[in-house]
Amino acid sequence: MVRGFTELLSALFTRGAGTITDGLILQDHCLVCGVSLEYEALYQEFRVCPDCRFHYGIPARKRIDLLVDPKSFKEQYKTISSLDPLSFSGKVTYRKRLFRDQKRTGLTEAAIVGYCKIGGIRSILILLDFSFMGGSIGCVVGEKIALAFERAIRKRLPVVAVVTSGGARIQEGVLSLMQMAKTTMAVDQLHQMGLPYITVFANPTTGQSYASFANLADITLAEPGALVGFAPLRLLQEMADEPLPVGSHTAESHVTHGMVDYTVDRESLPKVLSTILHHVNPQRTQAKFLRPKRRKVLAPKAIEAWEAVQRVRRPDRPTVGDFIDSIFPDFIEIHGDRLSGDDSSIKAGIAELQGCSVVIIGQQRQLIPGGESQSSYITPHGFRKAQRAMRLASKFNMPLLTLIDTAGPSMGIEAEEGGIGHALASTMALMGDLPVPTVAAIVGEGGREAALAFGIADRVIMLENAIYTPISPEGAASFMYRDDSKTQEAAQSLRLTSRDALDMKIINEVVLEPDGGAHLDPTDAAKSLEQVLIRNLAQIQTIPITKLLRQRYKKFRKMGEYTSYFRATLAREIETLQSYVVEQVKSVREKSPSSEKNLRESQDSNRLPSTNGKASDTDPSQNP
Length: 624
Hints:
Layout (H helix, E strand, L loop, with lengths): L4 H10 L4 E3 L2 E3 L14 H6 L13 H8 L6 E3 L17 H12 L5 E8 L2 E8 L10 H17 L3 E7 L7 H20 L4 E9 L1 H4 L8 E4 L10 H7 L11 H6 L5 E2 L5 H11 L2 H4 L19 H8 L7 H8 L4 E3 L11 E8 L2 E8 L2 E2 L5 E2 L1 E3 L1 H17 L3 E10 L3 H5 L2 H13 L5 E10 H6 L5 E5 L3 E3 L3 H9 L5 H7 L4 H6 L5 E3 L10 H20 L3 H13 L6 H28 L1 H13 L19
Parallel strand pairs: 5-6, 6-7, 7-8, 8-9, 12-16, 15-16, 16-17, 17-18, 17-19, 18-20
Antiparallel strand pairs: 1-2, 3-4, 4-5, 10-11, 11-12, 13-14
């Protein structure tokens, strides 16, 4: 395998060119791994090496054939061609370079735009072809891209952009730079209309395209191994004092650092784009849930607090990922906070539930060596990633479902320097004011502020054996009793079970689990959760959003007020205290019967006899 891009570029430019067919250079052997490609169907059709999966460059026309439904592409603005606005002079004139690339590629410019269908969904397609002057943005390219976004707005269509571009069109000077502003503002207009925008980074994606319209998509995909970044690789190597790290400036590196959602192989790209476009299609985002028949509601079984803690911490208890796989099989996950990183503890994306599109945010327990699982601690990257998903729900008017299973927010100097406080506060603020129906489900450990940040919802439900607590039982034992052996007593005092949360009106409903816990029958537990989710969504989806927001505010505004529940709780506490005092008095009497006898004799001696054998009611001081 090639160790890095320096070796790869060297290999690409020093090997033989192979044969040329339909404008494509066909290699007999892979330039990266050396495997024979002569009879490989994957390479012949998609230009992908079956062994090392290296994606060779393909022209825009070929990419259209591979990406869209057959005979569905209709090009727009084809007659717009470039001029020489600055009369740029160089070793080769700008006009000659344009004419040469037009003749070689059959294109009038680096951009191709038009109508198409992907998976039957009508869309606007934008492609930049690197083979035409490096796919750089000039005045015509910027104009075509802006016109494409404006047409999408008029026709209420989603936009898909496939980018292979590098550098700036320096022959057009500062006018080329201005195209970044033009295309960026056109994307902003599309977002304001609530229309979907998906970008695919192909090899390479750098320069002005990368730093403008290409990086503003709702969902960003990339081909594996693509060179992706703002600065050209050559410039980075010149500025670096030592060789660049292996894999840097690639699509995979961008996924790791939260800038790209995920990489998709070329042959799988049409299916992935089709699934995403179907999820954000108005027919599904505006669909209504059918309320399932309500089964007889059974009261949750009483369970000891410590037993509930042990059940939610079982390594074989279903995780959020398990519930997503069971309930949302076509889940499209997003990655990254678009700032500096990703958090695998947060699973966020778009899915379908009963024919309706929804946004899912879940907190995933992590596996540790030995197959054990531990509760997740959410980092600032995780909270900002969740905010991305919340904004997607708001933009496309999709209901939001959160699945909660976390021990709390990450604590440490790295989290503090990453802005954990602001990440928590802004997540809660966004969740509380989100203009879509929201349902939160506590499926495991609802720990501390991280659980609350995802639990500010119109409906909050809780699995029967789940817990909801401001601190772990171990932490409470250390804090309240200064004794780590008092964990069970601390758990009981925290009132952390689902039944306790229902009594305090913190949650709306308890989802019953199979006898013994969800780990004994994960499939049945997932079905029960799915039915309750659908029923709650159906109930709140019919409420106008302004009213829903008022109800959500009032719901959490009343938390902790002196209500009838707290009066009843106080009465129970007083009754318990009185019973305790009575029991203590009885026990004292039973332990000292002689003292009670002497007390009775003393009382009898103070009472004087009367003539009729009854005690006298006269004043004792008047008797002789």
